[in-house]
Design goal:
By secondary structure, the protein is an alpha+beta fold. The protein contains two helices and four strands. It has a four-stranded antiparallel β-sheet.
Amino acid sequence: MHAYVYKSQRKADTFVYLAARDDFGRVPEPLRTQLGALTFVLDVALTADRKLAREDAAVVRTNLAAQGFHVQFPPQPDPAARPDA
């Protein structure tokens, strides 16, 4: 499966994976509004052995097949991590 990755210009470290290039109509309007303009950054083959830095490739493939898009949100801070440690 192939994915096209776009970066949100409004939400830092937020990316949208699309099953078809520039097929933004698959992304619900309220989410598109929150994300603002999306800039193309990468096309990638999501093979079974493909590793992604912050996402599970199998989950991305499942979402792309089911709904045509996947959103990668920024990592949440670890509440157990102490900033002064």
